[in-house]
Amino acid sequence: MAEKLMKYADAVKQFDPVIGLETHVELSTNTKLFCPAHVEFGGDPNTQLTPVSLGLPGSLPVLNEAAVDYAIKLGLALHCEIAEWSQFSRKNYFYPDMPRNYQISQYDKPTNGNGYLDVELDDGTIFRVPIERAHIEDDAGKNTHVGGADGRIEGADHSLVDYNRAGVPLIEIVTKPIEGVGDRGPEIAGAYMRTLRDIVRALNISHARMEQGNMRADVNVSLRRNPTDPFGTRSETKNVNSFRGIEKTIQYEIRRQAAILNDGGEVLQETRHWDEASQTTAGGRVKSDADDYRYFPDPDLVMLHITKEHIERLAAQMPEMPRERRNRLQGEWGFSDLEMRDVVNADALDLIEATVASGASAAGAKKWWLGELSREANAKGVSLEELPVTPADVAEVEKLIADGKLNDKLAKQTVSGVLAGEGTPAEVVAKHGYQVVSDDGALVAAVEEAMAANPDVVEKLKAGNMKPMGAIIGAVMKATRGQADAKAVNKIVMERLHA
């Protein structure tokens, strides 16, 4: 049965939304958090295991130093206070895909706390998101439900468990309640997640591929009548793994909760799940509080001591942060604020930078990635970086255009060939014989034939009306199978007109 929803505009007029995000970032270490099992996405099920990641009796965890350094770097980027002493605790809960049946996490003594992240919205507004903590923990495995629809547990007759992911190091970034969002809650959450993704990539601590589960968020939403009122009862939508899904989750929950409160009902504190197909959330279990997890310090792990000197060494290694990088590149490329915003929103910044580094102009790189290639990605439902074309390929096509060997039409055909797996741009050009007609004699002959076939157009051109020039150029293009240089054709026509 469909849930009652209030119109979004009405909901944010009547209620003050408060949101919160708990973001899990999977670290790109070579091995797991507490054992030497290899970490690799897409490996055969249950092949990346040790006695520790299987939770076998007598196995003891040993902390991964690289994971701690990654956490400290992220803490610095999020303006957090780095604790000199932090502690790992056992979080007790029935995890069907966690073999030891508890998670090792940080509870009351996290490594990073009390930070913030400034995010830029589409109109240039800067919104500060307060960070409660960014703590270290290990991940659970993965359940695959068999027999139901779309891999869901509903209707499944059995489930398979893959423990490869069990023990993979995570950082969980927990915001404080984000207040004052008004009607921009979904936009703020999306901007926050994109900024966070850019930061962990800049730090080179995570691939942050949401479609692979490297980065996912639990989305908390509550409503209250006035900003001065206590927080309302929140829902927590678990493991949303797309920017659009996070934005849509917040919008849906605001509409759902507003309808309940407007009818005099009470919002249930529960976990929920986002259904991409129906664009709705669905109720799960009643939400547990911290006491229910029976946290206690893990007796197999000593407290983590992080010295001031160690923090200073890591701080000296910090790379350029995304906002500073964007400002620098915008200046180097000469893009307007709107152009740069389009690049960022298209998730094309890295690709354009790599294309420029391969020899293309910034304008040429932007034209391809935000034009032809963006349309191709949208049509296939994939990200730009998933397309089978590299920045070097795009730069090579741009060079062929600059050298006069390809025109725009042939360039598009060449890129289509690359996308189809026919090889590099040079190989596609050679295979299909794509080449601008550069033989002056052949081009002159084609132009003269086109002019002879269109005497009325020629008369208009002689009279100074240049609008019909396209008819001559089109005829030449047809005669040369699209391989003529339009500028050269235009030049020859003008020479013939004034001969």
Description:
This protein is an alpha+beta fold. The protein has three domains: 8-314, no CATH class; 334-432, no CATH class; 440-497, Arc Repressor Mutant, subunit A. The protein is built from 17 helices and 16 strands. The protein has helices at 8-14, 65-77, 185-202, 243-262, 308-316, 322-333, 337-345, 349-357, 362-370, 372-380, 391-402, 408-419, 425-432, 440-453, 455-462, 469-479, 486-497; strands at 16-26, 81-82, 85-86, 89-92, 102-105, 112-120, 126-138, 142-146, 158-162, 169-175, 215-224, 235-240, 270-275, 280-286, 296-297, 304-305. The strands form four sheets. Strands 2-6-7-10-1-11-12-13-14 form a nine-stranded mixed beta sheet. The longest helix has 20 residues, at 243-262. It catalyses: L-aspartyl-tRNA(Asn) + L-glutamine + ATP + H2O = L-asparaginyl-tRNA(Asn) + L-glutamate + ADP + phosphate + 2 H(+); L-glutamyl-tRNA(Gln) + L-glutamine + ATP + H2O = L-glutaminyl-tRNA(Gln) + L-glutamate + ADP + phosphate + H(+). Belongs to the GatB/GatE family. GatB subfamily. This is Aspartyl/glutamyl-tRNA(Asn/Gln) amidotransferase subunit B.
